[in-house]
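Key idea: predict the complex, not the pieces.
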Amino acid sequence: MTLWLTRPRDDAEAMAQALCARGHASLVAPLSEITLHPDAVPDLAGFAGLVFTSRRGVDAVFASAQADHARQMVCFAVGPATAQALRDAQVARVIEGAGRARDLPAAIQAYARAEHTGPLRLFYAAARVISTDLAPTLAQHGHELLRGTLYETVGVRRLPDGVARALHGGELCGVILMAPSAAQTYATLIDDARLRREAHQLTHYCLSAQVAEALQALSPPKLEVAAAPNAQEMLALIGQGAKTDGRC
Amino acid sequence: MAQTPSAQTPAARTPFSLPVRIGTRGSPLALAQAHQVRDMLMRAHGMPEDAFSIVVRTTSGDAIQDRPLSEVGGKGLFTKELEEGLLADDIDLAVHSMKDVATVLPDGLGLHAILAREDVRDAFLSPHAATLEALPQGAVVGTSSLRRQAQVLRARPDLSVVMFRGNVQTRLRKLDEGVADATLLACAGLKRMDMLHHATSIIETETMLPAVAQGAIGIETQNDNAAIIDLIQPLNDQVTALCVTAERAFLRVLDGSCRTPIAGLATLTDGRLSFRGEILSPDGRHAFADAREGPAAQAVSLAQASAHALLDQAGPDFLAAFAP
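Result:
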């Protein structure tokens, strides 16, 4: 029996490894896809540094014609995972933030002060929709931040290949939902495919009450919510649920 | 010379423009709730008052004052126009009393923050008696809530119930004018308007189980508006969100409308969820109740199981009898 991972592929594969280490099989079938726009990376000659709040931005920059130039620049990463992605891309100088986008301007200002750089002109390798605007905070210190849309998340329009077959065949024991938008896409696609009865056999592992709320239309009878909205709690929830369920 | 990214990259959505537009109904209670949300956001982010604007929308539920909403039917009578505003990008977030929110939201919208719950209990207000039990034989109770009507008649079949629409101030005025001998209002609303002193007594939930999601304020936004979702996250109370989601799942299974008296309450203590649910006939003659508890992680499933148990107890025709 298998757990269905609905996150974008990279994230899902990382989670699949973590689940595998705990003895659970999984099916990676994303309900959203990441589209990179490496062609949207501008000529970086006019910038003093690069700002990244996700590995996706790193992927886009280093898939672009500006990759060699970018390796020589100072790169500011939101947290450890993004910083590691930059190091893996052989960036010479990585400044690592504390993990939240809102804390990144402080790290940038600390660098500027330590290096006596004066005002910096920075390029932000961003998503189409961002949660925190760094530019106003940086502008207070005289820094200029130009934002480019280098990647975006798009929900899929039909159930991924293999999922319907696995549902029909009773091969799945649970589905892992990490975002309200993914949960809403899931509910819609299950209904469109007339697989509600089959889906009701699954345990729905939800990152938060908000994710569970987005499943109200489907009303799945087996639903579990993580104690806190993070990957560690999700893994703990799945481990506990799988033990109780006995199928996964 | 470097080109500006915006000249050659796909259009990026600005995180949000200021002021942040907070959509609300126009009743004094709804405005108090919208101001509470604004004040909490100001404190959470150190933002000034002029970073927010309160946008008032009249909803269908506000416009219809001459008949019980149970006669009007339909879902989302107090939320539809606000949701249209969200989808049209006229407002950034909508503040709702969660008990007014339909169990299934329009595509693209989500409840991304639920504030810590206020007092879930009902308050008893009367110039003639200290409690519901103490009302004289045949007294008249004013309420627009089918749930309260059914629960009052269940407890006191001798009383009569009359429709009592309007906001809190209107209902207090009607009580003063003698339209009814008593009324019932949510403690949460009275507290939010600093009017709890008007309550004659408080009815414990063991006596009168509240409406699903009573006392909770929810904030609805577009699902893909990451900036606004991030902005409101500090206001989310995980315990309330879980309890309210469970209660709404219970309501969803019962397919409850405003024509069916339904009550439900989830509470969380030490990682265990307790759930109580109740369905009644509008005349209070028939009532079915269920109570259960289990791990917090299974809150939603537990509440759904409670709804199924009630449906089994009541039989298939019970709710259908009150359907439109």
